[in-house]
């Protein structure tokens, strides 16, 4: 019998090698047809049982990446979800109860449903290389493991390690997975097949859970640990906005004594989550992220050498990040001490990123070369300029370096506010100038805005987008207009927050209102963190627009040198990198505060749509989510407007305009939403 997605190979030791190569897909995913075929195969194998079954991937890019998220989006009712989950459970249970030994031979990514299949096997052997990772990242899509993975991962790795992996959704490298007990062996690629065979033939005993894990799993102890877990989760995600981790904790607390029952309850729990708005919106965010990635896939541009000019806050970190991502980088600054600072900060970044992997730290350091005299200019395929935000200074640098630049090299500026057209006037080849606007801190912010000026050529633009992807960022194409997308959207929201402080409302309450909406950080804390001087200069650039006035409070704080976190005092006092907040602060109507901030945010998003700052609603939402952290579970501002109702929200805007003035005037875009 032949199958579309699976190939069965029997060897002379009566071992059945079950090869998965999902048809019409670059990656192995557990589509319905893949599972249906697997069900048939298992039913057949039960009739003439082999000595063992080894699951193998025939794709070069991994084992199994998980369930098919497209199919996920087609589910609209609890019943449909439950039916899908029961089908998955039935197959996983069948694999688990096969009388012969089963082994998952994991090479490359093994995630979500793929990991759940591996967990249903008797053993898991994992390839010891950098590209192989295992994980149960379902929480990132607003659900938790739904093919028996919650029960089986806890049985294998113990509650603390397994719950931690599921609650954070993080991916695990071989050593961590082996230490936890999620996989049974970790071997170099050349020994992978031999190791899988060894497990089938020898059936070594399984490692028992440690006593401490057994205690944690005890029904008297579970409520205490579960409460601790809830507290930890609450620091990152509220129950109201992200129910999945809380449901997973409940599941474990209530049912771990009876694994069969827990499996059944897992189905109920996930079925109720799948149809929830949060999961639907997080799936949307997943696809938006993929859309951003594809922006960088249109060209295979990989610069051999990058030259960064400016070793300050941004240039230093940009240079370090590029070296970390494998590029040879020279970094130039007019001040030698700035370069010394860059090298020191880079070392910290590499250590944070690579931890004990000394080789990767050393190799990244070797790729980063301080270059006081700018020798790198003539070798570079890409020059990134991140010097002072001053048109004259930038232009005199361009005039100096352009004659020495390689034919075809790109000149990218990290400017936050100077129009590219103005900068380009001094260039002989203005088509090679593009904006690559990074966000601070470079290592943590996933988005880069790739800015097209009037003169930027298509070729330069596509190469810059491709470069954004090469350094593992999400590249967003934007028009060269004041504030681009992210700063432009953020500023009215921040300014409204500052306005409220001027009215005497406690910063703590303003931040609380924004957090309740689902923002990752309150606007006042954000302004203090970015620096009030930086906020002021961006706000001034944008204040030419009709809707943005600079609050007086902001002016006076900057004049008095209270710039926020960096000076120890801004709207908050800062100590050891943390804002000191007044826990007793109170305010009657948080909803009003929230509406004032969010409505300005949404209004600006609609204006950007009308002006075509970014092409397409999906990319606007994507840019805003990954650039500002806009509550991901709401699926992006434009999507949120549609979900809440255009009429309801524009009516609210009009009420706010009556109460607070013209800055709440609805953008014309609302009429066409
Ligand atoms: P910074 O003041 O920390 O660093 C600028 C560096 O450039 C200094 O070390 C200075 O010595 C060097 N420099 C100035 N003129 C030079 C020249 N002619 N040749 C060589 N080196 C020169 O500034 P920061 O914050 O890193 O900003 C740099 C650029 O990045 C600006 O255009 C800014 O608008 C933009 N930006 C800043 C962000 C931030 O959060 N600070 C965020 C995104 C963009």
Automatic annotation (TrEMBL):
Keywords linked to the UniProt accession: Fatty acid metabolism, Lipid degradation, Lipid metabolism, Lyase, Multifunctional enzyme, NAD, Oxidoreductase
Limits of the 3-hydroxyacyl-CoA dehydrogenase NAD binding domain: 306-479
Biological processes per GO annotation: fatty acid beta-oxidation
PROSITE patterns from the UniProt entry: 3HCDH
Gene Ontology MF, one: long-chain (3S)-3-hydroxyacyl-CoA dehydrogenase (NAD+) activity
EC numbers for this chain: 4.2.1.17
Keyword Coiled coil: no
UniProt keyword Lyase present: yes
Enzyme class per UniProt: lyase
Catalyzed chemical reaction(s): a (3S)-3-hydroxyacyl-CoA + NAD(+) = a 3-oxoacyl-CoA + NADH + H(+)
3-hydroxyacyl-CoA dehydrogenase C-terminal domain ranges (all copies): 483-574
Pathway annotation: Lipid metabolism; fatty acid beta-oxidation
Family of the protein in this entry: In the central section; belongs to the 3-hydroxyacyl-CoA dehydrogenase family.
Record's protein name: enoyl-CoA hydratase
Species for this entry: endosymbiont of Galathealinum brachiosum
């Amino acid at each position: 019998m032949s199958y579309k997605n699976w190939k069965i190979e029997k060897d002379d030791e009566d071992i059945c090698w079950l090869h998965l190569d999902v048809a019409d897909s670059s990656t192995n995913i557990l589509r319905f047809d893949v599972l249906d075929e697997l069900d048939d195969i298992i039913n057949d194998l039960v009739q003439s049982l082999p000595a063992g079954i080894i699951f193998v991937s025939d794709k070069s890019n991994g084992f199994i990446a998980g369930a098919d998220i497209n199919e996920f989006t087609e589910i609209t009712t609890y019943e449909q979800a439950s039916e899908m989950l029961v089908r998955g459970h039935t197959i996983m249970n069948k694999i688990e109860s096969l009388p012969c030994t089963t082994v998952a031979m994991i090479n490359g990514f093994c995630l979500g449903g793929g990991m759940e299949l591996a967990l249903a096997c008797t053993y898991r052997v994992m390839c010891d290389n950098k590209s192989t990772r295992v994980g149960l990242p379902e929480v990132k899509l607003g659900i938790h493991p739904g093919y028996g993975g919650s029960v089986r991962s806890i049985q294998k790795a113990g509650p603390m390690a397994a719950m931690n992996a599921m609650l954070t959704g993080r991916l695990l490298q071989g050593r961590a997975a082996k230490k936890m007990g999620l996989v049974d062996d970790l071997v170099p690629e050349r020994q992978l097949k031999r190791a899988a065979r060894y497990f089938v033939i020898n059936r070594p005993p399984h490692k028992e859970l440690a006593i401490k894990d057994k205690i944690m799993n005890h029904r008297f102890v579970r409520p205490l640990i579960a409460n601790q877990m809830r507290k930890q989760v609450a620091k990152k995600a509220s129950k109201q906005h992200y129910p999945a981790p809380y449901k997973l904790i409940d599941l474990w607390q209530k049912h771990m004594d009876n694994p069969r029952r827990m499996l059944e309850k897992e189905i109920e729990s996930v079925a109720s989550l799948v149809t929830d708005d949060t999961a639907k919106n997080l799936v949307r965010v997943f696809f938006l992220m993929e859309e951003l990635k594809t922006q960088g896939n249109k060209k295979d541009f990989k610069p051999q050498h990058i030259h960064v000019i400016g070793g300050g806050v941004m240039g230093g970190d940009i240079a370090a990040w590029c070296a970390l991502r494998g590029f040879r980088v020279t970094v130039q600054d007019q001040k030698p001490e700035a370069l010394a600072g860059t090298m020191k900060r880079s070392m910290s970044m590499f250590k944070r990123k690579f931890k004990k992997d000394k080789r990767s730290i050393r190799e990244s350091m070797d790729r980063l070369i301080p270059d006081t005299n700018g020798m790198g200019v003539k070798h570079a395929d890409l020059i990134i300029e991140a010097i002072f935000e001053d048109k004259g200074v930038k232009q005199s640098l361009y005039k100096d370096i352009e004659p020495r630049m390689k034919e075809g090299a790109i000149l990218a500026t990290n400017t936050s506010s100077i129009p590219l057209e103005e900068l380009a006037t001094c260039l002989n080849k203005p088509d090679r100038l593009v904006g690559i606007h990074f966000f601070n801190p470079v290592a943590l912010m996933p988005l880069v805005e790739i800015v097209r000026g009037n003169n930027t050529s298509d070729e330069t633009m596509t190469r810059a987008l491709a470069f954004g992807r090469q350094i593992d960022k999400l590249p967003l194409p934007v028009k060269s207009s004041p504030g681009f997308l992210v700063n432009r959207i953020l500023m009215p929201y921040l300014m409204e927050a500052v306005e409220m402080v001027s009215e005497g409302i406690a910063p703590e309450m303003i931040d609380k209102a924004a957090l309740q909406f689902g923002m990752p950080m309150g606007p006042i804390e954000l302004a203090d963190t970015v620096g009030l001087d930086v906020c002021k200069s961006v706000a001034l650039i944008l204040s030419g627009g009709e809707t943005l006035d600079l609050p007086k409070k902001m002016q006076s704080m900057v004049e008095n040198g209270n710039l926020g976190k960096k000076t120890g005092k801004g709207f908050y006092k800062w100590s050891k990198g943390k804002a000191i907040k007044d826990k007793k602060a109170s305010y009657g109507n948080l909803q009003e505060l929230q509406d004032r901030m969010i409505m300005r945010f949404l209004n600006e998003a609609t204006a950007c749509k009308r002006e075509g700052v970014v092409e397409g609603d999906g990319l606007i939402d994507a840019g805003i989510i990954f650039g500002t952290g806009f509550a991901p579970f709401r699926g992006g501002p434009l999507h949120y407007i549609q979900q809440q109702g255009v009429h309801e929200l524009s009516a609210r805007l009009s009420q706010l305009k009556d109460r607070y003035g013209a800055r709440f005037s609805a953008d014309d875009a609302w009429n066409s939403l």
